[in-house]
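Lecture notes, structural biology module. Today: joint structure prediction for complexes of two components.
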Amino acid sequence: MLVVAETEQLPVARARSGEPTAWDTLFRRYQLPLYVYIFELVRDEQASLDIVQESFINAVRHIGTLREDGKFGSWLFGIAHQKCIQRWRKRGREAAALEELAAAPGEFKDDPAELLIREEQEAAFMKLLGRLPLAQRSVLVLHFVEEFPLEEIARITGTVLGTVKSRLHYAKQALKKLLEEEIE
Amino acid sequence: MKTPREVLVGQHQAAEAKLDAIREKVVAGLAPDAPVNTKQMPRVVPRQASALEAGWRQFLWSLRWHLAGLSAAWLVVVALSLDSTPAPTHRAARPDASSPRQMLAALRENQRQLRELTGTPAAEPAPEPQKPRPSPRSQIQPFSRASA
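The predicted structure, tokenised, for the full assembly:
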């Protein structure tokens, strides 16, 4: 089981000096969560793999811009997020990709146990996740997959904290509602 | 019961082999003996290089006002040198140049005024020079026979 980035001792300092084994460790740690996040945004296997590779290459090239070693995970996800936006722009879908939620920020209460999924619900969960608006899906997957703090999700997605809170709140509500409807 | 994270990661577990291949490829590009591929090979900037770069930046930043002043002075010099360069002169045909007929009329008018002033009677106008008229063809001596 993967653990949250901030509790780990990752060899970021050694990676800065260009040590291949350090990069291997870092990439091994993040490759699957990163792929999950990218896939949930672009919904295309080959494009997701391409973006993972580009993100890795960019991470190696621009490691000098990382200020805090402990934030490597969110920094890497931020690179991937930008790559996804670039891809949408190329396809002329920025209007959908960059949509802003009109709703005002709601009160957000984080409870990891509030959304537990039974085995028979898994397929429905994945399907319903895909039905969420892109902006909400992005925040929700970052929250689920890496349990990033809200401030870091805001940095990754290039939005303000209030927007992240709002999106996460409405995304969770929408997902719960959809799951309940699916059960009924 | 599973958490959403376990469900999400579990759904994409099949991509792990492809991700391993990508990771190995990128990391192989970092090795010192890796083949040179400018498009795919990542470029690692070592810390020493970045420190040197930072030193240069700091040095140039400290001289920013001096450099800006020098640049401005050079711009002024260039502007002045461009300004003093003689522009190519294109002389257009002057439209006020009088025609011979106008000049002749002006000369006649001038003569008339002069005669009025001096009281000299008007002189007979000079007969116009006769243009040589060509002789009739019958009077033309055939040159070749005459000379022969």
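Point to remember: Residues 17 and 23 of chain B are 10 Å apart (CA to CA).
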